[in-house]
């Protein structure tokens, strides 16, 4: 038997940035991607995580002002070529990474909640920039997209409403009435970044512009609404599991006779669903990969606690108890499995497009947030009482993971989508099983055996 061929791997892969990236993904990484993944790792580990407590300190007393630290780091990240890495390479504005390559970066960014923001790779900016790059006219890109990519403007996405079941977006009912060269908007919205932070520049809003259209998928329109437009009132900040998520946060909004130029409509009246589907797919992958990075850090914290020589209940290290050994093993297994699901979705998007990847995207969105909440909760349990306090970032991690189970659509909606798609395959399986029976009958006659029907 001839020996197996020797594979010489790129020496760069010995860097810790690539420790969790599976071999099939490494084989697809361009030299640019290898450079950026390593740079993102160094950035998060050396510039962001050590500053986490400084970030909290700068927010004290100035909850709704972007801390100077963020502006400082954003300038540095831009100079190092770490801005807008998420925008896929089929856009002319892209820095050159594929969805799969960026996914590797996104996992590393997830290790610090606000690290992505320093690189202009945070939600909702990522989805909004991709939306504007994909669907806007050149004039709109110059006015709205360019400042976002430069980091001199900030945006939010306004879709959810308090008065309807927004998981079915055909219910969205905020009124958008055309009057001459303007749209007049009236209604209520939930979420979308807080107006209290004056860095916020505009909303991308989905509204009901043609309620009488018999095709419910063409009743809605997407429009850019500048935040300083008269008639927009922020009713309050929405806390998420008790956290205000300052300095961006979320809000509840009232629109009263808000007048917006018709020139701000994206793509055309009645095309909001076409835009929304193009926007949400990549964003879901970004969320999931950041959650995996977050879980990796939670996992590391759990290992630190398990081996802390000061913590010896009943004379044993916490990590010497069988229950914790099994916890760690199962977390490792599920984390690695979840990563493969998301990387597969990103690769499918690159190879076949976002529409073809919708099932893989939905699978990621169902599996990862639930996995993250489960295992971050277990990491808090390993820490005991300290695990639910500010002694660790675990409570904030868990809150974010729990929120993402609802962000970009609740997992029940994604399960329904996957289930519907799977039900469509049943006919083929029925035919296959009928063929098995026919062949069995033929073989029973051939061998002189009794044919037994199980129908």
UniProtKB/TrEMBL annotation:
GO terms for molecular function: acyl-CoA dehydrogenase activity; flavin adenine dinucleotide binding. One of its GO terms (cellular component) is cytoplasm. InterPro entries: Acyl-CoA_dehydrogenase, Acyl-CoA_Oxase/DH_mid-dom_sf, AcylCo_DH-like_C, AcylCo_DH/oxidase_C, AcylCoA_DH/ox_N, AcylCoA_DH/ox_N_sf, AcylCoA_DH/oxidase_NM_dom_sf. GO terms for biological process: fatty acid beta-oxidation using acyl-CoA dehydrogenase. Its cofactor is FAD. Residues 38-151 form the Acyl-CoA dehydrogenase/oxidase N-terminal domain. Pfam families: Acyl-CoA_dh_1, Acyl-CoA_dh_N. Gene3D superfamilies: Acyl-CoA dehydrogenase/oxidase, N-terminal domain, Butyryl-CoA Dehydrogenase, subunit A, domain 2, Butyryl-CoA Dehydrogenase, subunit A, domain 3. Keywords: FAD, Flavoprotein, Oxidoreductase. This is Acyl-CoA dehydrogenase family member 10. It comes from Thyridium curvatum. The lineage of its organism: Eukaryota, Fungi, Dikarya, Ascomycota, Pezizomycotina.
């Amino acid at each position: 038997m001839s020996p197996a061929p020797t594979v010489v791997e790129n020496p760069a892969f010995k860097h810790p940035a690539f420790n969790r990236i599976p071999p099939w993904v490494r084989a697809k990484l361009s030299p640019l991607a290898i450079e950026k993944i390593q740079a993102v790792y160094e950035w998060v580990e050396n510039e962001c995580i050590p500053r986490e407590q400084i970030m909290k300190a700068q927010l004290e007393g100035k909850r709704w002002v972007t801390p100077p630290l963020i502006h400082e780091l954003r300038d540095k990240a831009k100079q190092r070529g770490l801005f807008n890495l998420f925008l896929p390479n089929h856009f002319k504005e892209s820095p050159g990474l594929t969805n799969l390559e960026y996914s590797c970066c996104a996992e590393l960014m997830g290790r610090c909640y606000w690290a992505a923001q320093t690189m202009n790779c945070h939600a909702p900016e990522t989805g909004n920039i991709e939306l504007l790059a994909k669907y806007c006219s050149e004039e709109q890109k110059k006015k709205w997209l360019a400042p976002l990519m430069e980091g001199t403007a900030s945006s939010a996405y306004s879709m959810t409403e308090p008065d309807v079941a927004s998981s079915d977006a055909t219910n969205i009912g905020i009124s958008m009435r055309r009057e001459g060269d303007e749209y007049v908007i009236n209604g209520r919205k939930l979420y979308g970044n807080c107006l209290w932070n004056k860095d916020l520049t505009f909303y991308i809003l989905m509204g009901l512009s043609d309620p009488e259209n018999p095709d419910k998928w063409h009743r809605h329109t997407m429009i850019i609404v500048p935040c300083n437009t008269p008639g927009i009132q922020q009713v309050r900040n929405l806390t998420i599991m008790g956290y205000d998520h300052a300095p961006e946060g979320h809000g509840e909004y009232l629109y009263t006779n808000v007048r917006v130029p018709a020139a701000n409509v994206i793509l055309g009246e009645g095309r909001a669903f076409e835009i929304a589907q193009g926007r949400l797919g990549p964003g879901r992958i970004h969320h999931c990969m950041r959650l995996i990075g977050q879980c990796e850090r939670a996992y590391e914290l759990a290992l630190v606690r398990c081996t802390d020589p000061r913590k010896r209940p009943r004379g044993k290290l916490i990590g010497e108890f069988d229950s914790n050994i099994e916890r760690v093993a199962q977390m490792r297994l599920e984390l690695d499995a979840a990563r493969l699901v998301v990387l597969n979705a990103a690769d499918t998007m690159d190879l076949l497009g976002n529409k073809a990847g919708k099932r893989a995207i939905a699978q990621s969105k169902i599996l990862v947030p639930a996995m993250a909440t489960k295992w971050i909760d277990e990491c808090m349990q390993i820490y005991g009482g300290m695990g639910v306090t500010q002694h660790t970032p675990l409570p904030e991690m868990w809150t974010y993971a729990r929120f993402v189970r609802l962000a970009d659509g609740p997992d029940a909606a994604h399960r329904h989508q996957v289930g519907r798609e799977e039900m469509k395959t049943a006919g083929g399986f029925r035919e296959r099983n009928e063929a098995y029976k026919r062949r069995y009958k033929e073989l029973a006659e051939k061998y002189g055996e009794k044919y037994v029907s199980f129908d």
